[in-house]
Amino acid sequence: MTDTSEAPRRRTTLKDVAIRSGVTVSTVSKVVNNRPDVGAEVRRRVLETIDLMEFRPNPVARGLRTQRSDTIAIVTDDLEGIFTTAMMRGVEDAASIAGMGVLLCNSYGEPEREAQQLRRLLDRQIDALIFMSGNRVGPRPDPALPIPGDVPVAYLYEYGSPDIPAILPDDEGGARLAVEHLAACGASSIAFLNGPREWEATGDRLRGYEVGLTHLGRSLDPGLIATSPSWTPEDGYHAMSQLLEQRPNLDAVFCGSDDLAVGALALLRDRGIDVPTEVQVVGFDDRSLAVHQRPPLTTVALPLHEMGVRAGELVLNPRHAVTEAPALDRVPCTLIERQSTRNQTS
Amino acid sequence: MTDTSEAPRRRTTLKDVAIRSGVTVSTVSKVVNNRPDVGAEVRRRVLETIDLMEFRPNPVARGLRTQRSDTIAIVTDDLEGIFTTAMMRGVEDAASIAGMGVLLCNSYGEPEREAQQLRRLLDRQIDALIFMSGNRVGPRPDPALPIPGDVPVAYLYEYGSPDIPAILPDDEGGARLAVEHLAACGASSIAFLNGPREWEATGDRLRGYEVGLTHLGRSLDPGLIATSPSWTPEDGYHAMSQLLEQRPNLDAVFCGSDDLAVGALALLRDRGIDVPTEVQVVGFDDRSLAVHQRPPLTTVALPLHEMGVRAGELVLNPRHAVTEAPALDRVPCTLIERQSTRNQTS
DNA sequence: TTGAAAGCGATACCAC
DNA sequence: GTGGTATCGCTTTCAA
């Protein structure tokens, strides 16, 4: 095998830099960690040598000494969850500000794997831990391994023991947002095409729908609520047709997910009902498909990135937790206006 | 905040064990790494102390000394890819046999991120590297950072410079499998409902379809081939209807993906055409939805797990690469027989 | 402000 | 077989 890559020549160390710049390792170390007690001229010289020699401190050695790793780990049960990436980016953004890296681990939802992963992570001196659900908010059992008290922990998109702070989306508030938007756009009969009951978020969204209507001084009509047995567009399609059967005069429908909304849109199209002039539609989740619908779907966006950021900040500044201790942090959703609802200002 | 977890008491070290068992650290180290040069009695005693004290060697310290991390990293461009998890499990299985752990990193498909991640990984003394595509086989640029020659590298579900071995599914062979199965099940007019041309795998599958038919001594009929503009069931539905229009007498259809097959099944159902008595259907990928179709879908399974295993073994035994140097390893697909095709033996 | 030296927790070479 | 000890690369008192 002809070797195409660089020779594996020994990496330059603190000592190399020290010798080259005519000081001792102590001094170089101070410069690297930019401590104040270093003369300006010396610092300049050392810094110069550092990037001349392309020195990067060995994190393993540093870790041995400091017992830290500048790394925070995310343990998830579902890599493929459609929300993992967005949340992870949030965590990474928060982490990188603090000069930390993020590690992702998959427990496959198996406690045994989780324990194994945690053991590994803890052995590698992880500095903080975030347990994240990939696609579904809900309760979870305690970590498969007791976490040492000096490792901050948070739940993200899931929750459990009140000892561990959790970051969740404000599904209820999001649903209210949708209802209020529809009302503001002139809808008088707003239906709710809900997702499967077993999903915790659907309960929250239903509550938001009800609270929203009530708050608007409107009455609740059970005939305006349909529950789809699944999240698929197909079932959304059927549920929408039911809804129309029960309440032919409805002029708006709030869907519990974008997928359901896709189904609803399809049915409305098949029936020759125009969106948004005859019926307005709002989805939930702001999946990428929302923008590609005809018309582009107005939807409630989950604050995934922001949730990740908060989780990251939370574990990086555990002092917050001590003082404020917000066991449950509900992050507000935002409404993304597109063309499946009428413009509020027109 | 009342602390519910264990006190963070200092972890037990090699030295602790040594003292407790009345030997020196050298000896304990030997036992831990089960070196032969240790007396049976001493070994027993030390081992006993080890699990009495719940000693686990500190991988950071060990890493500093050995320059290794017992960890192999996977860098993927797509965490949410529907195939990531299965391949990752394969890698993990191969790794765990060698006592290695696996780290997953997301480059988000951005070279800059990839470079950043690689820098981090290399700094942390990763022992091997696998670049993995989450959902689509295709060529990729060289690693965003030159990889030191002593770190074995492999591509998984993607490929690039011939210096780096690649593990890919044998899409062509898989397609042949499907065609041959359909023929064996008595199909005389086998259509191919292909996916979008831009996807490399569809080309391979088309070739397999053609080679398969040719090999069976059948002629190729362009009218039996449809190309769906996307992978969605909707487009599969339409393509299937086209196919029937062009060749009303077809009695089998091989679909380029399970999703397309779902669409095809839907159309056949709508048309009142029975599967498998009138038309037999085979999918590709063996997604979980295949088994839930009516009838359950016969499909060609991608050897994802096996591919992961091979990638893992490859980077763990780079000597193989030196001698055999299989730049491209095509792993055979397997046929999963279900009820959308007629039983071969009946 | 700078430097000397003691670790962090393990491995490995070399005596005994 | 077992033990002493230098070493991996860096951080961190503590003196100078």
Automatic annotation (TrEMBL), chains A, B:
Top-level taxonomic group: Bacteria
PROSITE patterns: HTH_LACI_1, HTH_LACI_2
InterPro entries on file: HTH_LacI (IPR000843), LacI/GalR-like_sensor (IPR046335), Lambda_DNA-bd_dom_sf (IPR010982), Peripla_BP_I (IPR028082)
Keyword Ribonucleoprotein: no
UniProt-listed SMART domains: HTH_LACI (SM00354)
Key words of the record: DNA-binding, Plasmid, Repressor, Transcription, Transcription regulation
DNA-binding listed as a keyword: yes
GO molecular function terms listed in the Swiss-Prot or TrEMBL record: DNA-binding transcription factor activity; transcription cis-regulatory region binding
Pfam families xref list: LacI, Peripla_BP_3
Gene3D superfamilies reported for this sequence: 3.40.50.2300, lambda repressor-like DNA-binding domains (1.10.260.40)
Protein's UniProt name: Uncharacterized protein
Native species: Cnuibacter physcomitrellae
Organism lineage string: Bacteria, Bacillati, Actinomycetota, Actinomycetes, Micrococcales
